[in-house]
Design brief:
The structure holds 2 protein chains of 2 kinds. By secondary structure, chain A is of the alpha+beta class. Chain A is 18% helix and 26% strand. Chain A has one domain. Helix content of chain B is 14%, strand content 26%. The longest helix of chain B is centred in the middle third of the chain and has 10 residues.
């Protein structure tokens, strides 16, 4: 949305105000849509009146939101080049947060997919991967650091052309009163990594444009998203496409739902989340 | 620990039948700056100065030593599993693996390793996670998370400062379809690993008390920690 000084008349407060107001209503490629129901890209089959978050996050940028328990969050890789690095926190006690070790160890599964519970270190499900048509995700490599991006792309600053995930998470976290100590390892969606028998990482890349993952919030959550290239993306250039985010009111996983007792470990995790919410009156 | 307590801690007769102890020794030359025994189930911590080497001895064999590293000057910078894995391009920790911080900086380097591979994806046990993994009846049992929290509190740190960790002498294979889990160990009495500090680091260890999986052969035993090199 860059403009030139010559296109503006801003010599007085009145003119400056008129100039600023004249920009209202414009659309950018990446922006939040407020109210969410006004999104130009409503997800199929969703009652737009139930939308609570609608935003396009540019490659190299970040998004964040506090959502209620039972919110369904859809992440869509518009061009096939997004990589959504995600951190989740219990919004009421944010020292309870995503724990990647428990998230892979407790379900006995390193690779994320539909039905995988995203677990905290406190024995509860923060969110369930409720649907997934991509299958290319990662819970092992985290996001990029400033150190790695400076070595690979020549820079890592949020204001530059190749922000690191860590630096964007630092900003997103700060907007919820959270600091560097509140940034544990993250998971990422839309770029896959697999493990060879000797432990070597094999890059799997993306699954193409239009793929989507939906997360179901099982607790009230602070959600931080950094949309940056995967740390082991072998391409020399900083390649990252837009990420579309939509969230809407739904219901948390409960008895009778598909994933509620899919495994004994996840079942007890859902019980613990429900127990927590019952005690808190949620 | 009194001399008698230490004697009891190091007496194999006080552990499961057939337990064999080998105290081994440091994997690096140089003056010994610290030499301590971590009793079974207990936490431990020390600062290792840049250039010093910490040798960890698996005294009784297949005893998981859960471990976290912090920049001793700014503990907001701490060990990062993903930065270490992505930086190495490999899931397993072996000799030569650089143990990186959440900022991508080297905190330490594995300079010697006497087992095939060390784990850094299995995380720590704890009361809460035990309730998921084994059932709510195990919640009363002590866990590594409790050890980490207790030891971290000595340095003014708390729950926000505990992140996913290293597990010395623990075996966590990943199968082709992504199935993973803690299986029988590949270590033994007297097996060692050594890390060289690349900056001054605070090392937190939980001598894993888990009784529900083979990370310590269902027989928690002591660890020996030896720091060599000039203080």
């Amino acid at each position: 949305m860059a403009t030139r000084a010559g296109q503006h008349v801003t010599d007085t407060v009145g003119n400056a105000r008129a100039d600023a107001r004249a920009r209202a209503g414009q659309l950018a490629d990446a922006m939040p849509y407020v109210p969410a129901a006004s999104t130009p890209y409503p997800p199929p089959g969703v009652d737009t009146s139930k939308l609570t978050w609608a935003e396009t996050v540019a490659g190299g940028n970040y998004g964040h939101k506090v959502v209620a328990r039972g919110t369904r969050v859809r992440l869509e890789d518009v061009t096939g080049e997004a990589c959504a690095h995600v951190l989740l926190y219990n919004a009421l006690e944010p020292w309870e947060r995503l724990n990647v070790a428990d998230t892979v160890k407790i379900p006995w599964q390193a690779y994320l997919g539909a039905g995988h519970p995203l677990l905290s270190g406190d024995g509860r499900v923060l969110a369930t991967i409720a649907s997934d048509d991509s299958g290319a995700h990662d819970a092992l490599c985290g996001t990029s650091s400033g150190c790695a991006n400076r070595a690979k792309y020549g820079g890592s600053a949020p204001q530059g052309p190749s922000p690191s995930g860590r630096e964007l998470f630092t900003l997103a976290a700060a907007k919820h009163g959270l600091g560097p100590r509140d940034l544990p390892p993250s998971v990422s969606f839309f770029k896959g990594v697999r493990v060879e028998p000797d432990g070597a990482l094999a890059w799997g890349g993306g699954a193409g444009p239009g793929k989507a993952v939906e997360l179901l919030a099982e607790l009230p959550l602070i959600i931080l998203i950094a949309n940056v290239p995967h740390p082991v993306d072998p391409r020399p250039g900083y390649t990252c496409g837009p990420l579309r985010v939509h969230a809407w009111r739904s219901a948390p996983t409960a008895a009778g739902d598909r994933f509620w007792d899919a495994t004994p470990e996840a079942h007890r995790a859902y019980l613990n989340s429900a127990d927590y919410c019952a005690a808190r009156g949620l | 620990m009194t001399e008698n307590e230490l004697k009891a801690v190091l007496d194999p007769a006080n552990y499961a039948d057939g337990t064999v102890f080998d105290l081994a020794g440091p994997l690096a030359d140089g003056e010994i700056a610290l030499d301590e025994i971590v009793p079974a189930r207990a936490p431990w911590s020390a600062v290792v100065r840049a250039g010093q080497v910490l040798t960890i001895v698996d005294v009784g064999g297949n005893q998981s030593g859960d471990c976290l590293l912090y920049n001793a000057r700014d503990t907001a910078e701490r060990y990062s599993v993903p930065d270490t894995i992505a930086g190495a391009g490999n899931l397993y920790v072996r000799a030569g693996t650089v143990l990186r911080s959440c900022l991508g900086n080297p905190l330490a380097t594995v300079v010697a390793n006497e087992i095939d591979r060390q784990d850094t994806i299995g995380g720590a046990c704890g009361k809460e996670s035990n309730s998921l993994r084994y059932g709510h009846h195990t919640t009363a049992e002590h866990g590594c998370r409790e050890n980490f929290l207790a030891e971290a509190s000595k340095y003014g740190m708390g729950a926000r400062d505990i992140v996913s960790n290293l597990n010395w002498f623990m075996n966590v294979p990943v199968e082709a379809d992504g199935t993973l889990g803690i299986v029988n160990g590949i270590s033994g009495p007297g097996k060692r690993v050594a890390i060289r500090a690349e900056t001054d680091i605070l090392v937190l260890v939980s001598n894993c008390p888990q009784l529900n999986n083979p990370c310590n052969d269902f027989n928690p035993t002591p660890l020996r920690m030896i720091i060599t090199g000039p203080a």
